[in-house]
Amino acid sequence: MSVTFAEGLSKSDLEDRLVLAPRFDASGLVTCVVTDAESGMVLMLAHMNAEALAATIETREAHYWSRSRNRLWKKGEDSGHVQDVVEMRVDCDQDAVLLKVRVRGTGASCHTGRVSCFYRTVPLGDKVSPDLALSFADADRLFDPANIYGKTSG
Amino acid sequence: MSVTFAEGLSKSDLEDRLVLAPRFDASGLVTCVVTDAESGMVLMLAHMNAEALAATIETREAHYWSRSRNRLWKKGEDSGHVQDVVEMRVDCDQDAVLLKVRVRGTGASCHTGRVSCFYRTVPLGDKVSPDLALSFADADRLFDPANIYGKTSG
């Protein structure tokens, strides 16, 4: 792999300069927040290594690093739910990126078949205990994951 | 610390059941995406340990774990930019949470003084190289960080 980004910037240069110098963690990853380009809804959270980040920038299609499968993963490669990237942002200290995407196929980004991975609400104001009950914000599945993935995900 | 969440759920129970069972990583953290409750804009990304997650749920004010300062951190404790949590979601495999917040004070969530940490855009479609130039999506600072933090952040 011959992907090269800028390296070795000071904290103030990372924050203030207009140079992409991603700070990959000990596992070689940055965190990626994915939102819907039209609605702004947060769809999912994923990780990118240098190769996934470069592939996303160059192809305008979201690529991630699958920590469970330990390999580069083009989102939608199995399911058809490719994410076309409309805009990419990087955060202040350059250890996270934000994608604004349009999702192909059914429009689902969650492997459970839902539009977003964040489909359950946590109650606020209660004392925390092991039986704290969630509620569904969106229980609808746009596809049946068993039909698309079998036992895999993505 | 006596915070207790449910533990030991199977993958399908984590995804399908209405039980909060956060999967903290090897460092004891979950990732937290923070959005503006009105606009939906992604403001920042942070981390929570069990104590920060419980404090956020119970007080409805965002608490995080500061990896740089290695301590619990109530957002806005120094700057006044407290984040009042309107809604909290958890993702499919429960290793990430989403907060929808209203920000007090100037409305800035980034320690650089900007509304959002994601104030720079990454160009798409170009070949990646060490001199890939970013552009400012929002350069405006709502406060001067030197006046509020001195040398710290938060």
UniProtKB/TrEMBL annotation, chains A, B:
Task performed by this protein: Catalyzes the hydrolysis of the adenine ring of phosphoribosyl-AMP.
EC number: 3.5.4.19
Domain Phosphoribosyl-AMP cyclohydrolase per the UniProt entry, residue ranges: 44-119
Enzyme class: hydrolase
Keywords of this entry: Amino-acid biosynthesis, Cytoplasm, Histidine biosynthesis, Hydrolase, Magnesium, Metal-binding, Zinc
Gene behind the chain: hisI
Family: Belongs to the PRA-CH family.
Binding positions (Zn(2+)): C92, C110, C117
Record-level Gene Ontology MF annotations: phosphoribosyl-AMP cyclohydrolase activity
Record text on subunit structure and interactions: Homodimer.
Protein name: Phosphoribosyl-AMP cyclohydrolase
Residues spanning the signal sequence: none
Substrates-to-products reaction catalysed: 1-(5-phospho-beta-D-ribosyl)-5'-AMP + H2O = 1-(5-phospho-beta-D-ribosyl)-5-[(5-phospho-beta-D-ribosylamino)methylideneamino]imidazole-4-carboxamide
Coiled-coil zones: none
Localisation: Cytoplasm
Pfam families referenced in this protein's UniProt entry, alphabetically: PRA-CH (PF01502)
Residues reported to bind Mg(2+): D91, D93, D95
Cofactor(s) annotated in UniProt: Mg(2+); Zn(2+)
Pathway this chain belongs to: Amino-acid biosynthesis; L-histidine biosynthesis; L-histidine from 5-phospho-alpha-D-ribose 1-diphosphate: step 3/9
Cofactor: record remark: Binds 1 Mg(2+) ion per subunit.
Keyword Zinc: yes
